Amino acid sequence: MSARKPDTLGGRAAIVGIGATEFSKDSGRSELKLAVEAVQAALDDAGLAPADVDGLVTFTMDTSPEITVAQACGIGDLTFFSRVHYGGGAACATVQQAALAVATGVAEVVVCYRAFNERSGRRFGSGVEHREPSAEGAALGWSLPFGLLTPASWVAMAAQRYLYAYGLKPEVFGHVAVTDRRHAATNPAAYFHGKPITLAEHAASRWIVEPLRLLDCCQETDGGQAIVVTSVERARDLPRPPAVITAAAQGAGRGQEQMTSFYRDDLTGLPEMGVVAGQLWRASGLTPADIDVAILYDHFTPFVLMQLEEFGFCGRGEAAGFVAGDALPLNTHGGQLGEAYLHGMNGIAEAVRQIRGSSVNQVPGAARALVTAGTGVPTSGLLLGADGCHARVSAVSGRRGAPSLVI
Amino acid sequence: MTRDDLDVDPDELYGRLKAYEGRTAASGGTGRDPVNEPMIRHWCEAMGDTNPAYPAVAPPTMLQAWTMGGLAGHPGGSARSEAYDELLALLDDVGCTSVVATDCEQEYPRPLRPGDRVTFDAVIESVSPRKTTRLGTGYFVTTRMNVRAGDGELVGTHRFRILKYAPARPKNAPKPEPAPKPGLTADPARRPRPVINRDNAGFWEGVARHQLLIQRCLDCATPRFPWLPGCGACGSLRWEAFEASGTGTVFSYVVMHHPPFPAFDPPYAVALIELAEGVRMVSGITGVPYDKVRIGMPVELEFLRVDEELELPVFRGAEA
């Protein structure tokens, strides 16, 4: 419950399966394998299959990422993943996170896990010593010895395949850079305030990792950004016009890795953002045509194009032309390429300003905004709306069977 | 494995360590601040000690606090002696590089009160014979500090024991790579090493035998790369490794230009290879200039000796 009022979480979710490995002083196997075995044992106990799972929660201290546990368990798309900090203090909170997700329909089956070699591996108080590399380190380890070393290079691998699949040249990425920098040029808070670029300047900028040029890559920034959330009822008593959270979603795809999802699908899209898009549209009842402004995560330009396609703003392979046509106000703060690279949090702030009507590049009458989070990784997205204008789902929920926002 | 293999003659070493007994560990130390009420109050709050006797007198167990230099150290330098530094350096040199404080004993001849100014000196009281604990093998070193106030009145003694040790490796953890040849460790131009753990060690054992090993699920037969303990298709934990044919095509590639990578020589290409068996892996391309690599290019496995420790599976391209 909140610090002041009783909550409504009780009685809405239940624990249906428990499972564990044997408990020993020396498991003889990796922490990842222990996690996978425990998750599978709990699913067996619950009478559920890996394919039923759409949420995973663990401790920040755990070395086995949710996506890697999913990958090794045969679990597909995830719509909810979360971690809780502070060691053992996280235990019951993992179940609280799961219950929040289940109670709101964000996920249907969530598995909470913690697995470690606490006795035979690293021990508290033992100082610095040799430690077996984690699953996360191992995932990246398949690329580093060959010289694939940077975020730009991991994005470039998919970007090259995208260009090949649709018969495009690297210059098409320039449309995103030019759009972002045009908006940054009129934003006094932007690093590149007053510095627009042209397509020719993009095409003339030096290679970072082919097919990405300097102007395809976002800047690096020092800064901070914070966001306050409360109930819509309370929001109405506060000084600013509320930006109502119309829908919020997380997504991870089958075979998901962190920046190195090279081993799945055709490498021309962002399946995890497809998972986010499907939830946002289903939950809100909105369509791309309803969106007044989009703030799409832009650490590298190619993934902006793929996001437009995952959300259905245009067809596959058509996004560069779509951006060039300027049909959708995009990254009106200048994006991370132009304003600042704050891991997407500054993009949420811009969407709020658009809903408030206070952006320096205000879209007249903007009432619905789409914001996305980092691409190439398990990700998330938001639909924000002006008060009273946030969703259509309550009118259609019966027909679609989607969860109603009106509880 | 328990380590009892410090690379020295134990008797000879112990003789050298014993010689430090009785020597000065610290001398002429003065407390950075006089005993004072604010520090007493902070200490009591942190410890949750509500004894009403404080802060009129200092809690006895604050004894060591009055001798500490704070984060910046003692102004004008530490009171620690050269002999004590030498003893610790000698232990470092034989591999006892880790340290843990094990226990302390204190005596309080009289209470300290606000306004007291402390001075202190310490002696190396004893060095134990070689001991093996769960943490590792090493030596217990005990120092005894005398804390004085005013005109030299003894107000406390502080006997402090540490274990200087060579850390034991966790049982069954993979053995660290053999010590690299001199010159290699410090070389910034070394390529990043493969990240090897119990879930993927089999792959790198295969590379050492010049075999490219892929996993295959024993339940649904789906081939699997990268190596993981379970099947992404069906979740089965039963698998076997089999040798790939070594033929494939370039599925995608990049050309690395910037930033400068010390171990590499940009521009160079890195490719995502689709093997004939249907799985993909990131690898290097040989036999083709970086600007001639293309998607769809057929490639053939070979093994590249990178340095004395590292061998990698790479792919030779056939230029169209």
UniProtKB/TrEMBL annotation, chain A:
Which Pfam family, any one, appears in the UniProt record? Thiolase_C_1
Q: Which SUPFAM superfamilies match?
A: Thiolase-like
- Taxonomy, superkingdom: Bacteria
| CDD domains xrefs | SCP-x_thiolase
Give the GO molecular function terms: acyltransferase activity, transferring groups other than amino-acyl groups
> Which InterPro entries does this one have?
Thiolase-like, Thiolase_C_2
Which residue intervals define the domain Thiolase C-terminal in the entry? 256-377
NCBIfam families with a match to the protein in the record: PRK07855.1
For this protein, the record's PANTHER family field holds: ACETYL-COA C-ACETYLTRANSFERASE (PTHR42870), NON-SPECIFIC LIPID-TRANSFER PROTEIN-LIKE 2 (PTHR42870:SF1)
This chain's protein is named Lipid-transfer protein
Tell me which species this is from. Answer: Streptomyces antioxidans
TrEMBL record, chain B:
**Which domain of life, per UniProt?**
Bacteria
ChsH2 rubredoxin-like zinc ribbon domain ranges (all copies)? 204-240
Locate the transmembrane regions by residue number: none
FAS1-like dehydratase domain residues are 30-156
Annotated region (Disordered), positions in chain: 169-193
Check the record and name the SUPFAM superfamilies matching this protein.
Nucleic acid-binding proteins, Thioesterase/thiol ester dehydrase-isomerase
Which InterPro entries does this UniProt record tie to the protein? Answer: ChsH2_C, ChsH2_Znr, FAS1-like_DH_region, HotDog_dom_sf, NA-bd_OB-fold, Thioester_dehydratase-like
**Entries under Pfam families matching the protein:** FAS1_DH_region, OB_ChsH2_C, zf-ChsH2
- ChsH2 C-terminal OB-fold domain span: 243-303
PANTHER family xrefs: BLR3430 PROTEIN
Name listed for the protein in its UniProt record: DNA-binding protein
Origin species, per record, is: Streptomyces antioxidans
Which lineage?
Answer: Bacteria, Bacillati, Actinomycetota, Actinomycetes, Kitasatosporales
